């Protein structure tokens, strides 16, 4: 928040609430990293892919990404730590964009740690509830970041880049989590069969990627980061179904097409937004 003087806007001093938020978000990032370590099997924890009877393993369902897909978590956690450090800098205490996102980023990190704990306990149905809540929080962050322009390119990378990757990946993970829960519940093909349902879900994922791209078109870093993470996850579903079990060439092709849509959609929408801005339409933003 700023005040305005004859010489221009002057940043207001951070409040005690700002300082509290800065400290708590840093602590939350450490909790998230600790949860990730436990989820990887460190400290005696069980790897997520082995928990819940292997319901979330790479070969559990037709919508499960191949194992290398989960390496994106390392980038996301690095981004979350970078965000925590950036927002904790003394000069950033009263930055409006960080005020509007800090607590929500904290909640997302805690929910992610809770999700890991729930899966470790084998509570697969509860894991769907938690990851749906996480996806909702990230959607709120998406809206807040779109509504508030970044102050600099660096801020855009730290905030939009991190949240974008996080949201894109969790969107794919939510689909995989729901599919794993249905398989664990032995609901069968629900009248259409696993292949047909998988193709339908992948088509919805592609449509969702377009919705994200259109909504975030004036925040290029955010839109592209979402698309990259979505494309990454969907591409690894294609790899899993074409090279591993359960083998399903139809799902592999559908996942590949969805990945291409997710990758190209933000490129197209942001370029159109920038072109519109230059020709007198809605101004483009970072």
From TrEMBL:
Bilayer topology term? Multi-pass membrane protein
Tell me where it resides. Membrane
For this protein, the record's InterPro entries field holds:
TspO/MBR-related_sf, TspO_MBR
UniProt keywords (A-Z) are: Membrane, Transmembrane, Transmembrane helix
Membrane-spanning segments: 23-43, 70-89, 101-118, 124-143, 163-184, 196-215, 220-239, 251-273
Q: What is its main location?
A: membrane
Gene Ontology, cellular component aspect = membrane
DNA damage listed as a keyword = no
At the top level, the lineage of the source is Bacteria
Question: Is this entry keyworded Hydrolase?
Answer: no
Annotated family: Belongs to the TspO/BZRP family.
Protein name as catalogued: Tryptophan-rich sensory protein
Source species: Cellulomonas biazotea
């Amino acid at each position: 928040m700023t005040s305005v003087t004859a010489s221009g806007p002057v940043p207001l001093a951070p409040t005690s609430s700002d300082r509290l938020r800065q400290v708590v978000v840093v602590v939350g990032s450490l909790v998230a990293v600790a949860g990730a370590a436990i989820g990887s099997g460190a400290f005696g924890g069980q790897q997520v892919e082995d928990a819940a009877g292997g319901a979330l393993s790479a070969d559990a369902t037709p919508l499960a990404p191949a194992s290398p897909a989960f390496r994106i978590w390392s980038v996301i956690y690095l981004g979350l730590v970078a965000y925590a450090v950036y927002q904790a800098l003394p000069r950033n205490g009263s930055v409006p964009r960080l005020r509007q996102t800090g607590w929500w980023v904290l909640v997302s990190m805690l929910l992610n740690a809770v999700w890991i704990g729930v899966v470790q306990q084998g509570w697969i149905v509860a894991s769907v509830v938690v990851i749906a809540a996480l996806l909702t929080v990230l959607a709120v962050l998406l809206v807040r970041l779109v509504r508030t322009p970044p102050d600099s390119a660096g801020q855009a990378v730290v905030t939009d880049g991190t949240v974008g990757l996080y949201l894109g990946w969790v969107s794919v993970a939510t689909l995989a989590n729901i599919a794993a829960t249905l398989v664990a519940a032995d609901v069968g093909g629900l009248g259409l069969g696993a292949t047909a349902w998988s193709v339908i879900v992948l088509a919805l994922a592609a449509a969702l990627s377009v919705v994200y791209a259109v909504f975030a078109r004036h925040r290029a870093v955010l839109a592209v980061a979402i698309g990259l993470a979505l494309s990454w996850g969907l591409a690894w579903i294609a790899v899993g179904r074409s090279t591993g079990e359960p083998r399903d060439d139809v799902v592999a092709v559908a996942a590949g097409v969805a990945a291409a849509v997710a990758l190209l959609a933000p490129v197209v929408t942001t370029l159109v937004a920038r072109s519109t801005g230059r020709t007198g339409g809605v101004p483009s933003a970072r």
